[in-house]
Design a protein that fits this description.
With 301 residues, this protein is mainly α. It folds into two domains: 52 residues, no CATH class; 237 residues, no CATH class. Helices cover 50% and strands 7% of the residues. The strands form three sheets. Strands 5-7-6 form a three-stranded mixed sheet, with no helix packed on it.
């Protein structure tokens, strides 16, 4: 009975998606672009077709150089909120017995209490946050959020208790289903020391000239609104950006970072945990990260 209901629901979802695509296609033919209100319901791989301005933006920014080489991959369509994904990720890491933060190698226990004794991490300014595990977006929410009209301009549903309209991340999360799915995508989330997560903020990644160790032995550099991760995370980050672009087509890879991420991808190949993590997320979230999956297959992992 449950299997029959699941099949029925899946069929309904397919029918609804087809109808929306047909409606969007009609607008595309007669108006030159699909309505903005339909954007969140259009499958990610079709976004650039129905929204030519997005395709033009990617082309002029130089993103097409790397996008043409990315395998087709689906985005998140099941985890509907950031809090839900954090809950699922905690269970995943505990079940896998992987208790290491992404950037600095500090360890944590099953209750996510941090231990910096082996990593040599030292807090910079915020000791309280330095002793807390937080889930960081590899691709910051703002990097893809700015492509949503709800983030940039607001939405009729985004009005506070005093009747004042608001926009930004809060509005995008409230009014856009696709933004919610992107924000909650588990492939884009890693456990980080809270202070490092806060200091990195929404800064893009880059190669920085000086090696200033503001976090003790942790090789994480953040300054001038740029962040350079430890070199053993170069590839993880590059593949994270590639996945988010391939899955959602939101122009998250800037022109200046195309060659950087291509180089980082080569310099730091996938390891056993990156491959295992992707397989575990696939079981929960339902979509395969083809960027990592292909790399793991080539590496025999």
């Amino acid at each position: 009975m449950a299997a029959r209901e699941k099949t029925s629901n899946s069929l309904k979802n397919v029918v609804v998606t087809v109808l929306i695509v047909l409606i969007a296609g009609a607008f595309l033919v007669f108006k030159g672009s699909a309505p903005e209100a339909l954007r969140q319901y259009i499958p990610p791989q079709l976004q650039a077709i129905f929204y030519p301005e997005q395709r033009e933006q990617n082309s002029t920014s130089g993103n097409s150089v790397i996008m043409s080489n990315l395998p087709a991959t689906e985005g998140n369509s099941t985890i509907i909120s950031f809090p839900s994904s954090k809950t699922q990720l905690k269970k995943l890491y505990v079940a896998a017995g992987h208790f290491t933060t992404f950037y600095c190698g500090s360890t944590f226990d099953e209750d996510f209490n941090l231990d910096h004794s082996k990593s040599g991490f030292h807090f910079r300014k915020n000791e309280t946050r330095a002793n807390r595990v937080e889930w960081e977006h590899i691709v910051p929410a703002e990097a893809f959020g700015q492509s949503f009209a709800e983030w940039r301009d607001g939405h009729p549903d985004c009005v506070d208790s005093k009747g004042q309209p608001y926009k930004g991340r809060k509005c995008a999360a409230k009014a856009s289903k696709q933004f919610e799915l992107m924000e909650a995508d588990m492939y884009n989330l890693v456990p980080a020391i809270g202070e490092v997560n806060g200091d990195r903020s929404n800064y893009s990644y880059a190669m920085l000239e000086k090696e200033e160790r503001e976090y003790g032995a942790c090789n994480m550099e953040i300054r001038d609104q740029k962040a350079e991760p430890p070199d053993d995370k170069y590839g993880d980050i590059a593949r994270g950006y590639m996945y988010m672009e391939a899955a959602y087509h939101r122009g998250v890879i800037s022109e200046k970072n195309v060659k950087l991420f291509e180089a980082w991808n080569r310099m730091d190949p996938v390891d056993k945990w990156e491959c295992e993590r992707a397989r575990l997320i696939e079981k929960i979230q339902g979509n395969k990260n083809m960027i990592v999956a292909q790399a793991c297959q080539e590496a025999g992992l």
